[in-house]
Amino acid sequence: MPVMNGYEATRRIREEEIRHGVCTPIIALTANSAEEGLQEAVEAGMDLHLTKQIPKPKIAGVVLELCKQDKN
Q1: How far apart are CA 17 and CA 5, in angstroms?
Q2: Which segments constitute the Response regulatory domain (predicted)?
């Protein structure tokens, strides 16, 4: 992203959510599989950290699971 990275975007989204009382699931999709990438995603407020190459069925399953959690 030209203006900010996904971590900063997530931080800003989370700040706005607090103001509006909503919660948006955010999944990091990255080529960085290192532990530091996972830690940065968690610290930014992301719900999940997935490493590329991800089969489409796995992505669909993760999204469906997050949708189920959101309804509870």
Answers
A1: 18
A2: 1-67
Six-digit token string for 8: 């900063």
**72 confidence band (pLDDT: 50, 70, 90):** low
* Alpha carbons 46 and 32: distance in angstroms, whole number: 15
Q: How far apart are CA 19 and CA 41, in angstroms?
A: 21
Per-residue pLDDT averaged across 59-68, rounded? 87
**What homologous superfamily does CATH list for 6-70?**
Response regulator (3.40.50.2300)
Mean pLDDT of all residues in 37-61 = 87
pLDDT given for residue 33 in this prediction:
67
What Cα–Cα distance (Å) separates residue 58 from each residue in 18, 45, 52?
30, 21, 11
